[in-house]
Amino acid sequence: MDLNSSLPLGNLQCEQKVLKNTDGSAMYTAGETNVLVGVYGPADCKESKQDVKQAVVEVNFRPKIGIPGVAEKYMEKFVCKICESVILRSFHPRTAFSVIVQVMQDQGSLLSCAINAVSMALQDAGISMRCMPVAVTVALQKKEKEDNEMKDDSKKFVISPSTKDEEESVAIATFVFDSAQYDSISAYACGPMTSDEYRECLRLAKEASKHIVRFFRDSVSRKVSTDIR
Amino acid sequence: MMPINLLLKLYKLFHGITIMPRTPAFSKLEHEFLLKAISTGVRLDQRDMLEYRKIGISFGIDYGCCTVEIGETKVMAQVAAEMDRPRESRPSEGRLNVHVEMSTIAFPSFDPTKPGELGVGIQRMLERSIILSRAVDLEALCVRVGEKSWTIHLHVHVLSHDGNLIDCASIAAITALKHFRYPDVSVIGQDIVIHTMEEKHPIPLTVHHMPLYVSLAFFKGCERLAIDPTYLEEKVMDGKIILSINKHKELCSLQMNGQMNITKEQILRCTEIAAVRAKTLTELILNAIKTDTDDKKLGKTKSQTVLEKSKDNKEILKSELTVNSQTSEEIQIANMSINEDAVTDDAIKNGHNNKTEKPYWLTQHDRQTCSIGDGKVNAWSGDGAESSLGIFKALRADTQPEEKSEDENEDSEEEVVILDDSALET
Amino acid sequence: MELLNLQPVESYKTFLKENIRPDGRELMETRQTVLNVGSISTADGSALVKLGETMVICGVKAELTIPSAEDPGKGIVVPNMEMSALCSSHFKPGPPSEQAQVITKFLDNLLKSCTVIDTADLCVMKDKLVWVLYCDLICLNYDGNALDASVLALIAALQNVKIPEVTVDDESGLPHTNMEVKKAFATRGMPCATTFTVFDGSHIIADPTLKEEDITEGNITVVTDEHDNLIYVQRQGGLAMPEAEMQKCVKRAVEHGSEMRKLYLAVAS
């Protein structure tokens, strides 16, 4: 069943400190999807938005073509909730963290790519976090729908699917884990699946997330070593 | 009761120190230091006054997507096509729309919800240089007169701002347009079939010429000139001349911002410099697109072409300028010792200058494209007059099909009028 | 009660120690749910849902339109959630609040993924004429968990939709609507949403009220269908949580879903 689990993540690339004016930034490429993220913070905050106990997080999601709509708002909210749960916000009361996500190229698994990019950008900005969020998208493809006999043979899980894979699949799930315990922080699954299938997706995603965390680590250590030089 | 308010204020004050403001501070000391350095011909990034920063052009997988970096300034452009209805006033033409997006990612004080003064400015300038100079053949985009035509959307995303946004944006815009392909269409009776990229090879846009913006900043009462100013240099400059010019040395737009008192010789020199620059840039862009298509054939998904910031760049500039210029005086452009002829407020002297330099005016005028006179009117008369002039020009270009020669003729007429004026005065 | 307002978190903890919530519910218990269909006579389909104090009304308006060029054989369903200043002091008048937009997108994703309505059923004439269903949801009173209520209202309203028969004249090619004969179309599933929130990183509570939403972090929404499949799982924020807890939610959602489906069936008959 887990045909693709041998390391199907495609090529991963990450470049930090790409933008001059931001406090932290990262350009993250997974497969052919490419996202640029800039982070400011902890910075000055509008009085109406201030929180006396902890910092607030603003996320701005910018599509490549056209003006941001409801779909972008949904993504913003999702990413915002993740940031709120990982950043140690009580260290910086009355301030704001602002995260800007710019889609550079969307060829599938956009949400997970965006979250990983945000994670690396937050890391680059040196913001204190509980853990780093790691996201993986899994797509469930079935050849014959609603055929219970055939189900086991014809289903296939694709990790970090491309746009084409996404179109062919019946359900898509994105899971976000913490980099320390690999417990789930957030999840987004859309499309019909049994709870067994859901668990299988989760298991695969968890495996894949370990590879990604290793990649994070490599990427940061490489960056740090060049910084010293 | 009162102390609570006071306490709150104090609390905020103390906290305010630890909180970073949205706009980076710029001290007076820094300001003065920068100016002092520039007056001795030294720039913070060790560039020569006429040296560009490193330019990188890279492409994405999609057609019409490109990212351009000039030093730390970064702009992404994406072109998209949409089947639409042509404008009623122009039933046989497609449309080209320019959208400029300035998000907070580029600069902390940018407002993500609206483009702001700078963004609107860039949008206008791109429209002027690309649409009004008819760089893209819009008639080719029409599928059926009055009913169906392609609308091309040019989205320009500013990703990082370190000065000279307009140059970067114009390179990105032109490169993206040049790189873009739109799907082929066949008309069968009443039906219009849009073919997918797999069915038929997509078609590139017809780009007649490539107008590129080159900005030149003036410092210290217009005595010093620097090409490709950084963000800090833009903060301390008196103003800048922004020229849109193509490799055939045709001037498409000229704009002056800021408080400047410069002579027409200086403007002419700027044009010379810009022309040389535009030529190098055009070669770079064409080279980049070629590399990209070669790479795509080989199956690579990414390519990047870089023009290094190097001394020979400057050498090219110098040598080309000497070749082009007619008088030995022109060679000095490269050295930019403008102080000798920087006539500021002396009107009579100015008149003298015109008189003595008249033959130079005329010859220069013959060799060059002639929108200098036009540009001068543009720059003094502010934004409104400018755009109306642009429309006027576009309308006239419309009535006569041959654009290039027509443009020159038309402009030279205007030029003659101005020259006549000065002749009469003297 | 005074204490609950002044020190919500502390007093809530004391309640939870006894495994009970201030309103007398157990942790995994949901509030009373009331469903009424056909409440708006002018709409083509409507439903009113009352989940405790939270009230959401949904009206569906059917209109004929020309289909988009990409999908010539498919109709369109457009959900839109509105949470105006009317329903709670949390919202201010003006453009739609962030929460409303997020719910709108949630409903849109849900309709696309679970095929409650096969949009091909909405086609009258390919490439020429299709139905578009505008589903307007308005939150009348907000006391937490607007998501579950709006899913219930939307699905019930869609089941309630009756659209007039349309005949296309062969000669002229013009459509003719017969208002006398109205028919309902087949809805193909009965998804049901259940929302949980996490208090203090350890206690999971179902169907939170507004007060509870304020003091908890992270919410989990599980949508199940009649085969007890998961259609939509959404977990936003909160602290990292072991998988077993999540499975508890899924289990409870399945139970709750089958109860709620009885409601759908009761009003449908």
From TrEMBL, chain A:
InterPro entries: ExoRNase_PH_dom1, ExoRNase_PH_dom2_sf, PNPase/RNase_PH_dom_sf, Ribosomal_Su5_D2-typ_SF, RNase_PH. Coiled coil: none annotated. This is Exoribonuclease phosphorolytic domain-containing protein. Residues 11-127 form the Exoribonuclease phosphorolytic domain. Keywords: Exosome, Nucleus, rRNA processing. It is found in: Nucleus. Transmembrane segments: none annotated. It comes from Clavelina lepadiformis (Light-bulb sea squirt). SUPFAM superfamilies: Ribonuclease PH domain 2-like, Ribosomal protein S5 domain 2-like. The keyword Nucleus applies. Belongs to the RNase PH family. Pfam families: RNase_PH (PF01138).
UniProtKB/TrEMBL annotation, chain B:
Residues 397-426 are annotated as: Disordered. It comes from the Eukaryota. It is found in: Cytoplasm; Nucleus. Residues 404-426 have a biased composition (Acidic residues). PANTHER family: EXOSOME COMPLEX COMPONENT RRP45, EXOSOME COMPLEX EXONUCLEASE RIBOSOMAL RNA PROCESSING PROTEIN. Belongs to the RNase PH family. This is Exosome complex component RRP45. It comes from Clavelina lepadiformis (Light-bulb sea squirt).
UniProtKB/TrEMBL annotation, chain C:
Signal peptide: none annotated. Belongs to the RNase PH family. The keyword Nucleus applies. InterPro entries: ExoRNase_PH_dom1, ExoRNase_PH_dom2, ExoRNase_PH_dom2_sf, Exosome_comp_Rrp42_subfam, PNPase/RNase_PH_dom_sf, Ribosomal_Su5_D2-typ_SF, Rrp43. This is Ribosomal RNA-processing protein 43. It is found in: Cytoplasm; Nucleus, Nucleolus. It holds the Pfam family RNase_PH. Residues 29-164, 189-255 form the Exoribonuclease phosphorolytic domain. It comes from the Eukaryota. SUPFAM superfamilies: Ribonuclease PH domain 2-like, Ribosomal protein S5 domain 2-like. Keywords: Cytoplasm, Exosome, Nucleus, RNA-binding, rRNA processing. Gene3D superfamilies: GHMP Kinase, N-terminal domain (3.30.230.70).
